[in-house]
Specification:
Number of domains of chain B: 1
Oligomer: heterodimer
Largest sheet of chain B: none
Strand order of the largest sheet of chain A: 1-2
Distance between the termini of chain A: 30 Å
Distance between the termini of chain B: 37 Å
Number of helices of chain B: 3
CATH topology of chain B: Helix Hairpins
Helix content of chain A: over 70%
Largest interface: A-B, 43 and 42 residues
Number of strands of chain A: 2
Number of helices of chain A: 26
Radius of gyration of chain A: 23 Å
Largest sheet of chain A: 2 strands, antiparallel
């Protein structure tokens, strides 16, 4: 043994404490923020972040050195107590959360990110004689954009219009703000209602609670515990979405609450049926004792339906883009990068480790078809958007569809190919988390410096604000799946399996999805790097806010080059 | 066993009604009541399951119902607060962006 291995071995001393700390530290910090007051928020969050990074690295070392780990929390063993379990997949998800979470924390330390939706709502004069006729495919967005641009007119008129938001106006030209004027955006901060600005510190405890819930979710190995942790995540996510205040944000939060809660209840109903049929909720004993039958199929259907809703898979994706659009940029980043991945993780676990295998090959093809439709439809709708944030939000829909291709490709008969597809899909999810978080942060930056996020106003921004646009391009490389990004590696592994296992039809889907992704990334970048002096910056962003997404995008980019260790980590305790 | 089946059927019916109302009704209070009915129906199913063995009572469902009730209460409180603020901002008790005509009220 060389000294490095000995050191790693000592570092990997197994103790349940480290698993518990990953959950307890953010919880504790969140409560302490309420005791010590709002000014302690950033400091305590930073301390919790450091603690989580240490404990998660401990967990990674344990799984790396000793294989899958079980932790008897409180000394109670599985049938009586609720054991925690960590294998390659869960520690990889934990580290993804820790890395993205740390960057989100750092970004939030400096930013006035929460103000950005307010800037747009209150301060942009509508330009009535805009030449472009903006066509938006989904009706809810149309009405929401209308409402938002109406709001910036005189208040009584806005209220008048809000009372009838249900009437669709088919061919109306939407006013698109072309240029933000300097003066008005500056007055915006002072015109904020004070209680909204004052409640922004709540970001810290809520974000820590969400982080704690996510860590607990990735460590649990019990179907009911997963329900509880999902609910903790949702309960923390809803107030985060509405932090910026305003009717539209409130509506988005309420819609998210209703969708997420009904999805959770569908999941819970399925879990209860499973419990009724099998008599246990522990993942391992459930996997041993489950036998297929009508009750189990019904339970599987309900659980899958609930989780697909949480993942925002076509045709249950309608709630996602408006929610991501209305939430503050940093919250959109953590919703799309982490919260959606939590549902994906549960689906992976249940699909490959719990559910009886008889129906899976056929039903996985259905999941794949849903994923394929989501990829193409999401990318197509992203191309139709006139707002940068909506475009990125629809790209999330498309990429979630991509994640689903893992299921048909990994449910084949050959175990080696299944393992490859499994690794590829999870690696894609991982690098997508880094890339999309970076992308939403950049959107937040752009919104802040321009006072708007309409694609027209991006014209010529590359000259004044190069760092963030380069970050956007780098993250785009990973989203599209070009080498050497982690997205490319995931794509490549899936393509290989599709070719070798004879499911060639997925190859075409993957290629079309990537091409469409390239199209919408270029749609953003092309006007941004145009030579024009029309572009006016209305605000500055601190250096940290530009650096954090840049580093995150670089991580997504180089994750294709340093993939050996994470991929072999995935083999520890894998179902194949 | 017949008892369990009876309660399961009622629970399934209630869950369906709750889901239907949640999807169809625009009024926020009705939506909030609807998801409460959905939650209660799941709890009813659990309680029915607890009595599925003739001689012994399964106690685990009771614990699950208690935890589930805590979660439902917190969600109801949050949703009521949100509904109140939406009412204050827009003067109406439905989702601001909702488009019921295309069935996308969620």
């Amino acid at each position: 043994m060389n000294p490095l291995e000995i050191a790693l071995d000592i570092y990997a001393q197994s103790h349940p404490l480290w698993a518990a700390l990953a959950v307890l530290l953010p919880l504790l910090a969140a409560i302490l923020i309420f005791i010590f007051g709002r000014r302690s928020g950033p400091l305590l969050a930073f301390a919790a972040m450091v603690g989580i990074l240490i404990s998660v690295s401990k967990l990674v070392a344990q799984v790396w050195m000793k294989g899958a780990q079980e932790y008897a929390v409180g000394g109670w063993i599985a049938p009586l107590g609720i054991g925690w379990y960590a294998d390659g997949l869960s520690v990889l998800m934990l580290s993804m959360t820790a890395i993205v979470g740390s960057f989100i924390t750092l970004y939030a330390l400096k930013s006035k990110f929460l103000l950005t939706p307010l800037l747009q709502r209150e301060d942009l004069p509508p330009v009535s004689d805009s030449e472009q006729e903006v066509k938006l495919l989904p009706p809810p967005e149309k009405s929401s954009h209308e409402a938002s641009s109406e709001e910036s007119k005189s208040p009584p008129e806005a209220v008048e219009n809000l009372k009838y938001p249900l009437v669709p106006v088919p061919d109306e030209k939407l006013p698109v703000p072309v240029e933000a004027s300097n003066k008005e955006a500056e007055t915006s901060n002072s015109s904020l209602p004070f209680d909204k600005a004052g409640s922004l510190f709540l970001f810290w405890p809520l974000w820590l609670l969400l982080w704690s819930g996510l860590n607990a979710l990735f460590l649990s190995a019990d179907l009911f515990n997963w329900f509880i942790t999902l609910e903790i995540v949702t309960l923390a996510a809803v107030p985060l979405i509405i932090l910026s205040g305003g009717a539209n944000a409130l509506g988005a939060g309420m819609r998210y609450l209703l969708v997420a809660l009904s999805a959770s209840l569908l999941y819970l109903l399925g879990v209860v049926l499973l419990y009724g049929a099998v008599g246990t909720l522990d993942v391992k004993s459930l996997a041993l004792e489950i036998q297929s039958g009508p009750t189990i199929w019904m339970a599987m259907f309900l659980i899958i339906l609930g989780l697909l809703t949480k993942m925002a898979v076509f045709p249950l994706h309608v709630w996602l883009p408006p929610t991501l659009f209305r939430a503050p940029a940093v919250v959109s980043a953590l919703l799309s990068a982490l919260v959606i991945k939590a549902a994906f993780y549960l689906l992976l676990r249940l699909w490959f480790e719990v559910f009886p295998t008889e129906l899976l090959p056929q039903s996985s093809q259905i999941l794949g078809v849903l994923g394929a439709i989501a990829m193409i439809l999401g990318a197509w709708q992203a191309l139709q958007q006139s707002r940068l944030k909506m475009l990125v939000a629809y790209s999330v829909v498309a990429q979630v569809g991509f994640l689903l291709l893992l299921f048909p490709l990994a449910s084949g008969t050959n175990e080696a190919w299944s393992l490859t597809a499994w690794k590829g899909g999870i690696y894609f999810a991982l690098s997508h988390a880094f890339a999309i978080a970076a992308m939403f942060m950049v959107v937040g930056n752009i919104w802040q410096v321009l006072g708007t996020d309409s694609l027209d106003s991006l014209r010529g921004l590359g000259r004044h604000y190069p760092t963030s646009l380069i970050t956007f391009a780098l993250a785009g490389v990973s989203i599209v799946g070009l080498p050497p990004s982690g997205g490319f590696l995931g794509n490549w592994l899936l393509l290989t399996v599709a070719w070798k296992s004879g499911q060639w039809w997925w190859i075409g889907i993957i290629v079309i999805g990537s091409l469409l992704a390239a199209a919408y990334i270029i749609k953003v970048l092309k006007p941004a790097f145009e030579k024009t002096d029309k572009c006016v910056l209305v605000a500055q962003t601190p250096l940290l806010m530009k650096l954090v997404p840049l580093v995150l995008a670089l991580i997504a980019l180089v994750s294709g080059l340093v993939a050996t260790q994470p991929l072999s980590l995935l083999e520890k305790g894998s179902p194949f | 066993m017949t008892q369990t089946i009876f309660f399961s059927l009622i629970a399934m019916g209630l869950f369906t009604i709750g889901l239907y109302v949640l999807l169809v009704e625009a009024h926020l209070l009705r939506k909030i009541m609807a998801f409460n009915i959905m939650g209660s129906s799941v709890f009813l199913l659990l309680i029915g399951l607890a009595a599925r063995y003739p001689l012994a009572i399964d106690l685990l469902p009771y614990a699950m119902v208690l935890i589930g009730m805590v979660i439902m209460v917190s969600f109801t409180a949050l949703a009521l607060m949100l509904a109140r603020r939406i009412y204050r901002e827009t003067g109406q008790m439905c989702l601001p962006d909702s488009n019921t005509e295309t069935g996308e009220s969620l």
